[in-house]
Q: What sequence folds into this?
């Protein structure tokens, strides 16, 4: 039977937000992370309502997956009802990722783009699938996972608690074993720290309190664009402690061999001589091949009629046409590469100033961007925001939302008309 041997959690507002809309639950055997959206007055309320649902009475006799699904659906309904009753909370919602230890398995309930990772044997594996626009494009082959991690619309989620009266909850169970470390986190961590760096930090073997702190510091060091939350727990086998105690107790006593008689002094001396002779024979056997190999290693005598290859290579009279040819074409290749790069950059600049696309900003509001929907290394963005609407992406019906946020490049008038129509429908 597995048990929670250690657990820890930490949350932080990040470097660019004024309030923390993340909430978490950290009470073994149950853990959860919720990342609210819809502004400080709404997102924080939604995530708090989701976490409060974990302390309510539930059917503990039901399978763990069923319990997590019931919690998520109950929270969804309460958030939806509040959003309908109070215009200040219109469009609010929250992600929810939860894990619960049950026997030899960890059950999972998941909605949104918060994540659950498993660290095992020095490797990390993401167990949940983001309910996001870019994840859908990855599944369709339109984006690579690397492009998805840097895409400006990576924060647009397609499923959350609150925006609709009912919600589909992903539930499954994972076979677990001793030593496993599970990490639940909001996208403020997974969006700033790579999976490889997550594995390196967890694999350092520090106490989980220190590990959680280091994870948050790593996300802030990369810019801390969003709230950051990390919840960790490590599993151990219940029998491990008993086995260790038994070994310690046994080590305190000499071990005897049942009813066998103790050896005499003559037997002990004979055994000592036998072992000594075996050692001597082993040393001789190891030395003999070495001596034989040394005896046959006679260096060959070079013929005086053959010029050593080194003399030909080092001769100053021999021309070196290959080197001269390389000296001529290398500068030309460098110049050609510079010209090609300059032309490519110029083309990108020209295109990016004449096309537009519709996306969302960090607050989840539909936004008109000019340029191409890509980020380059070193923080270079190929787009700039031109207009921020008052329409939350989650307030647009799911089917229409996918058509609006499909990364299609548009003319300025086409994109502006689309934004205008959304503004008008929101005002109605």
A:
């Amino acid at each position: 039977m597995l048990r929670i041997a250690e657990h820890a959690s930490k949350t932080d507002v990040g470097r660019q937000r004024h309030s923390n809309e993340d909430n978490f639950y950290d009470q073994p055997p149950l853990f959860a992370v919720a990342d609210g959206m819809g502004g400080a007055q709404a997102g924080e309320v939604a995530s708090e309502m989701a976490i409060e649902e974990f302390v309510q009475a539930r059917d503990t006799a039901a399978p763990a997956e069923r319990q997590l699904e019931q919690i998520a659906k109950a929270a969804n309904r309460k958030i939806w009802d509040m959003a309908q009753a109070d215009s200040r909370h219109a469009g609010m919602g929250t992600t929810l990722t939860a894990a619960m230890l049950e026997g030899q398995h960890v059950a999972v309930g998941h909605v949104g783009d918060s994540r659950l990772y498993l660290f095992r044997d020095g490797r990390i594996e993401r167990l949940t699938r983001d309910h996001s626009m870019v994840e859908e494009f990855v599944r369709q082959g339109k984006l690579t996972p690397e492009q998805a991690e840097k895409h400006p619309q990576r924060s647009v989620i397609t499923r959350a608690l609150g925006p609709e009266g009912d919600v589909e909850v992903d539930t499954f169970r994972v076979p677990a074993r001793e030593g496993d470390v599970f990490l639940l986190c909001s996208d403020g961590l997974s969006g700033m720290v790579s999976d490889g760096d997550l594995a390196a930090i967890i694999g350092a073997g520090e106490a989980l309190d220190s590990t959680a702190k280091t994870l948050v510091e790593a996300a802030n060091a990369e810019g801390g664009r969003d709230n950051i939350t990390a919840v960790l727990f490590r599993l151990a086998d219940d029998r491990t402690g008993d086995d260790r105690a038994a070994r310690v107790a046994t080590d305190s006593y000499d071990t005897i061999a049942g009813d066998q008689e103790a050896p005499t002094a003559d037997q002990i001396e004979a055994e000592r001589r036998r072992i000594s002779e075996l050692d001597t024979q082993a040393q001789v056997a190891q030395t003999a091949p070495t001596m034989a190999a040394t005896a046959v290693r006679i260096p060959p005598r070079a013929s005086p009629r053959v010029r050593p290859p080194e003399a030909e290579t080092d001769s100053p009279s021999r021309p070196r046409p290959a080197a001269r040819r390389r000296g001529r074409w290398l500068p030309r290749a460098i110049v050609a590469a510079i010209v090609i790069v300059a032309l490519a950059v110029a083309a990108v600049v020209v295109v990016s100033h004449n096309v537009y696309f519709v996306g969302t900003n960090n607050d989840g509001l539909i936004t008109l961007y000019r340029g191409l929907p890509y980020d380059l290394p070193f923080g270079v963005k190929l787009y700039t925001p031109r207009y921020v609407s008052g329409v939350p992406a989650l307030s647009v019906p799911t089917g229409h939302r996918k058509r609006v946020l499909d990364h299609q490049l548009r003319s300025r008038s086409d994109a502006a008309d689309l934004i205008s129509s959304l503004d008008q429908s929101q005002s109605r």
